[in-house]
């Protein structure tokens, strides 16, 4: 019991007792003493009541303050939870083992076998939803296990030479850094460092989205894979149609090479990107390649001469165009995907000559660029868990590339016309992990070069929070 209440009860009882005594007193002197004592007790009682009222007010104020603090903390927790719910994190990565027969340089016709391991990539994706309409996403890729300068041997350049490259041996690159405004499902705008929708690899680049151990070689032998540039684009979904249209920074023709056509012209190796020449990229799909069946077309066009560092070496346009046609059928246990790429490069001979005479590049006699290039792949798979309690998919794949489909003058060599045919298996112990094995044959369209064989193992993961 509260001591103050107890004291108050005792005081009230005392006052009542005194009142009783006063009533019982008969002589004036005793009555006066009783009344005086009673008045003193009443004064004390009033003081105690005032003290009790003040204490109760303090307790109420403390309770109110505590309640406000609890509400404040609760509101902060709610706000933190709300902010956290607007944050997203995703990651995927791959590690591979390969055993290939390869040719030491472009003149070699005797293959050697080499086994390699590679932590291909670890990718982290951060997203934040500012509001219903505004969001952002940043994707950072860690390639080949680290960063630093390394020495690389390139047997297909200048009869075989060693090149020091900062990005070889590992690199950390920003694959995407975009802000999006999407007021409706039918229309959105994104700008920053964005993915170009040219090539299926830009759409299906996570390890559970393609069947081969490594991403398709045919696309990498013709253009940048998971192609990203600085620019702005619009996109949206209307019924089952998905569209994209972008204006982005163009390529630099100084780094075009015979064996991968325009792929090396991607300006990611420089701190700043030359944007004197811009490019257009667009895509229209029916269906969704990421979730199932779809068909789609894509188109890229841009000049490449204005972005050269040695702009005085070339006085003609190097207009580049690429057309992509792709399709996918994913139904039940069946998986079938394919893509065809065709590209043209204006003034390919002039670019070849300019590159040969640019100090520091020295691509040598084998730097002839194709005025036309083509590539395709077809992969087909069957999921065995449709019939067995086994989360496994078997597949077959064909990749083809010819970066020298045609040249402006002379005859195009078939040394760079390659076909990779393979079969393999994907095993997924959980939906977030895939283990892959693949074996196949590599054929070069030159009769004097024998077919070679390759084998690869890989493991990949992907998850999102």
UniProtKB/TrEMBL annotation:
UniProt keyword list: Coiled coil, Signal
Transmembrane among keywords: no
InterPro entries: Porin_dom_sf (IPR023614)
Signal sequence interval, chain numbering: 1-24
Ranges in coiled-coil conformation: 35-62
Coiled coil listed as a keyword: yes
Protein name: Phosphate-selective porin O and P
Species this chain originates from: Shewanella saliphila
């Amino acid at each position: 019991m509260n001591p103050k209440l107890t004291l108050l009860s005792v005081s009230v009882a005392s006052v009542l007792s005194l009142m009783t005594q006063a009533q019982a007193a008969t002589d004036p002197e005793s009555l006066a003493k009783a009344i005086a004592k009673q008045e003193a007790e009443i004064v004390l009682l009033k003081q105690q009541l005032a003290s009790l009222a003040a204490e109760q007010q303090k307790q109420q104020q403390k309770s109110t303050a505590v309640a406000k603090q609890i509400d404040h903390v609760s509101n902060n927790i709610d706000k933190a939870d709300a902010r956290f719910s607007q944050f997203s994190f995703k990651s995927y990565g791959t590690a591979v083992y390969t055993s290939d027969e390869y040719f030491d340089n472009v003149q070699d016709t005797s293959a050697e076998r080499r086994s390699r391991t590679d932590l291909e990539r670890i990718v982290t994706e951060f997203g934040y939803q500012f509001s219903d309409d505004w969001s952002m996403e940043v994707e950072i890729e860690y390639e080949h296990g680290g960063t630093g300068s390394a020495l690389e041997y390139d047997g297909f350049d200048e009869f075989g030479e060693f090149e020091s490259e900062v990005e070889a041996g590992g690199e950390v690159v920003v694959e995407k850094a975009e802000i999006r405004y999407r007021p409706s499902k039918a229309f959105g705008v994104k700008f920053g460092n964005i993915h170009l929708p040219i090539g299926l690899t830009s759409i299906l680049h996570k390890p559970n989205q393609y069947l081969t151990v490594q991403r398709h070689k045919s696309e990498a032998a013709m253009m940048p894979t998971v192609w990203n540039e600085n620019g702005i684009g619009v996109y949206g979904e209307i019924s089952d149609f998905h569209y994209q249209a972008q204006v982005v920074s163009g390529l630099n023709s100084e780094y075009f090479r015979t064996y991968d056509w325009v792929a090396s012209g991607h300006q990611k190796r420089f701190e700043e990107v030359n944007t004197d020449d811009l490019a257009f990229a667009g895509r229209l799909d029916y269906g969704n390649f990421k979730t199932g069946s779809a068909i789609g077309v894509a188109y890229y066009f841009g000049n490449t001469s204005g972005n050269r560092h040695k702009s005085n070496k070339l006085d003609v346009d190097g207009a580049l165009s690429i057309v992509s046609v792709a399709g996918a059928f994913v139904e039940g246990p069946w998986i079938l995907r394919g893509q065809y790429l065709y590209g043209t490069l204006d003034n390919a001979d002039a670019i070849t000559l300019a590159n040969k005479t640019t100090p520091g590049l020295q691509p040598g006699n084998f730097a002839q660029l194709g005025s036309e290039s083509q590539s395709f792949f077809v992969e087909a798979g069957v999921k065995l868990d449709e019939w067995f309690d086994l989360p496994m998919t078997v597949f077959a794949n064909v990749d083809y590339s010819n970066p020298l489909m045609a040249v402006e003058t002379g005859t195009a060599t078939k040394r760079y016309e390659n076909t990779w045919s393979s079969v393999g298996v994907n095993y997924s112990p959980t939906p977030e992990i895939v283990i892959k094995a693949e074996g196949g044959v590599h054929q070069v369209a030159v009769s004097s070069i024998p077919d070679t064989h390759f084998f690869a193992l890989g493991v990949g993961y992907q998850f999102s929070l």
